[in-house]
Specification:
single chain, alpha/beta, Aspartate Aminotransferase, domain 1, Aspartate Aminotransferase, domain 2, 2 domains, seven-stranded mixed sheet, four-stranded antiparallel sheet, 39% helix, 14% strand, binds pyridoxal-5'-phosphate
């Protein structure tokens, strides 16, 4: 089987991740931050260590500004709904995932004004267009660090300076880049970053986070949920302390342990080695697909400017037929359709049918890519 659906979720997971998840239940299975006994303290330590590792990995100083959530969608909702108020203006791009689009469309109904900056057909966001969209009421810019449809990387550092000149914040949806390319929030000027644990960070599903930059005023961000935190239990009001203000209810200890192991696995290999491997696979994939005359490949067609995601369509064939035949006849696993990003498909010109998306991962080999290309050329021509 050749698994090329790592943009949906990475698979297989490193064995260290699976081990950390069972180990934590066996040896540190108390409720973190609740009881004072050793199992509770051991669980809290696993969580704190992971917070610290994420803070270091993403370039912020204060680990308490790493807020654990269920996934990137949850983190994006927390940021958007926590920051935006009626009358505020928000700028986004036309390649966003529905994790950004749907909460924004809902907020629009509550009096938030939205500008959607069009990207080019290869998924590129021009910073001058972002600058032109800014208004005096712009409170937030929210962009995907990389498109989940074509992989194109957005110039987030330049967008950050535009945001800051306007007195606005930048929220980056790093669902497709955290663990895939080096991110230094401080150096890049990213104020808030949403990540998900189950993609390139190699963790399990059900864990993600919102990382709040050291200079962001958290008193201006409302929690999405309120409830028990294990702290200040005498009060019926949500505490203001971090991370408790934004983390109510029992934490996903198993997910956090797996995420921590995924992070350490990445750091052991080095993010540059991972990126190099993905660039080589991406180039071979682009070259191989481009050589099939019936295939149209979308995106920048340049692994330097994208993460390892390649989408294509085939003249005269429906994408669902291609995906099904690749799976059933050749055991090549892809994802077809609109990838939860209808605006992105409108932008690249593949709406409403969508495309076939191939997303290699760290465990994908060059032979896998060559075999997948052969399988695609056979499916295309029969
Ligand atoms: C760009 C982008 N943003 C957000 C998400 C949402 O991630 P999750 O489903 O883990 O919340 C995804 C998932 O595919 C994505 O690709």
């Amino acid at each position: 089987m050749i698994y090329l659906d790592n943009a949906a979720t990475s698979w297989p997971k490193p064995p260290e991740v699976l081990k950390a998840m069972t180990d934590v239940l066996e040896h540190a299975g108390g409720n973190p931050g609740r009881s004072g006994h050793r199992l509770s303290i051991a669980a809290a330590r696993v969580i704190y260590d992971t917070r610290e590792e994420i803070a270091r990995f993403l370039g912020i100083s204060d680990p308490l500004r790493v807020i654990f959530t269920g996934n990137a969608t949850h983190a994006i909702n927390l940021a958007l709904k926590g920051i935006l108020r009626p009358g505020d203006h928000v700028v986004t791009s036309s390649i966003e995932h529905n994790a950004v689009m749907r909460p924004l469309r809902s907020l629009e109904k509550q009096g938030i004004h939205l500008s959607m900056v069009p990207c080019t057909r290869d998924g590129r966001l021009d910073v001058r267009d972002v600058e032109m969209a800014i208004k005096s009421t712009t409170r937030l810019i929210v962009v995907a660090h990389a498109s989940n449809v074509v992989g194109t990387i957005s110039p987030v550092a330049e967008i950050a300076s535009i945001a800051h000149q306007a007195g606005a914040l930048l929220l980056v949806d790093a669902a497709q880049t955290a663990g895939a390319i080096a991110i230094d929030m401080k150096a890049m000027g990213i104020d808030l970053l949403a990540f998900t644990g189950h993609k390139e960070l190699q963790g399990p599903p059900g864990i993600g986070g919102l990382v709040i930059g050291d200079n962001v005023d958290v008193s201006k961000i409302e929690p999405l949920m309120r409830g028990g935190t294990g702290s200040r239990s005498e009060s019926e009001e949500q505490p203001d302390d971090l991370p408790d203000k934004f983390e109510s209810g029992t934490a996903n200890l198993v997910g956090i342990a797996g995420l921590g192991a995924g992070l350490r696995w990445i750091m052991d290999r080095g993010i540059d080695e991972i990126r190099d491997h993905m660039k080589k696979l991406g180039q071979t994939l682009i070259d191989g697909l481009s050589a099939i005359s019936e295939v149209k490949v979308y995106g920048a067609l340049d692994p330097e400017r994208s993460v390892g995601i390649v989408s294509f369509t085939v003249t005269g064939k429906h994408v669902s037929e291609i995906g099904l035949r690749l799976d059933e006849e050749y055991e090549v696993l892809s994802r077809v359709g609109l990838h939860c990003a209808p605006a992105a498909h409108k932008t690249i010109g593949s709406f409403p049918e969508g495309a076939v998306r191939l997303a290699p991962g760290f465990f994908t080999t060059m032979d896998d890519i060559r075999e997948a290309i052969q399988a695609i050329s056979k499916v295309v021509r029969s």
